[in-house]
Amino acid sequence: KNQRVCHVAVQLEMGSLWEEFNRLGTEMIVTKAGRRMFPTFQVKLSGLDPLADYVLLMDFVPLDDKRYRWGPGHLRPKMDEWAIVSFDKLKLTNNLLDDNGHIILNSMHRYQPRFHVVFVDPRRDSERFAHENFKSFSFPETQFMAVTAYQNHRITQLKIASNPFAKGFRDCEPEAW
């Protein structure tokens, strides 16, 4: 097995926040224009070869087994450091004709985000080793239901309380939520 991916370790950042949302049944809003995920999918990586290039990808596995992908680009790690990768610009949409690179999801379907580390193999016959050049990670606490409007008022309250971009909602009365 290729040593450039087999020793890669990944930790979910903001894990306790994800667990708190998961206990309530996480929901993510999908819109025609695209909506950012919150909590943000963010991971910490270690064990990467500092002389190698990697492609980092995310996909979302729905119950109907279709896969939608989004990738932030290449990574060349620094020696002996954890690399933090944030998918904070990733947007979810229900627009089947989206041409903005957003993740297309169906409302009222559950999804499991997955994270993939792919070693960019410089060998001419690299396709022969493709099965050795990647490693996938998923975190059960990041599962969510795609919705066009929140179904669970406790999720709405937790998002308002936790999301730094929801400050305007925190300044009003809770009954208005």
Automatic annotation (TrEMBL):
On whether Flavoprotein is a keyword of this UniProt record, the answer is no
User: Where in the cell does this protein reside?
Assistant: Nucleus
Q: Which SMART domains does this entry report, sorted A to Z?
A: TBOX
T-box domain residues are 12-171
Task: Give the matching InterPro entries.
Answer: p53-like_TF_DNA-bd_sf (IPR008967), T-box_DNA-bd (IPR046360), T-box_sf (IPR036960), TF_T-box (IPR001699), TF_T-box_CS (IPR018186)
The GO cellular component terms are: chromatin; nucleus
Alphabetized, the UniProt keywords read: DNA-binding, Nucleus, Transcription, Transcription regulation
Entry annotated with the keyword DNA-binding:
yes
Q: Which Pfam families match?
A: T-box (PF00907)
Q: What's one GO BP annotation on this UniProt entry? A: positive regulation of DNA-templated transcription
One of the entry's Gene Ontology molecular-function terms is: DNA-binding transcription factor activity, RNA polymerase II-specific
Task: Give the protein name, as stated in the record.
Answer: T-box transcription factor TBX1
Which organism was this protein described from? Answer: Tinamus guttatus
Q: State the taxonomy lineage.
A: Eukaryota, Metazoa, Chordata, Craniata, Vertebrata
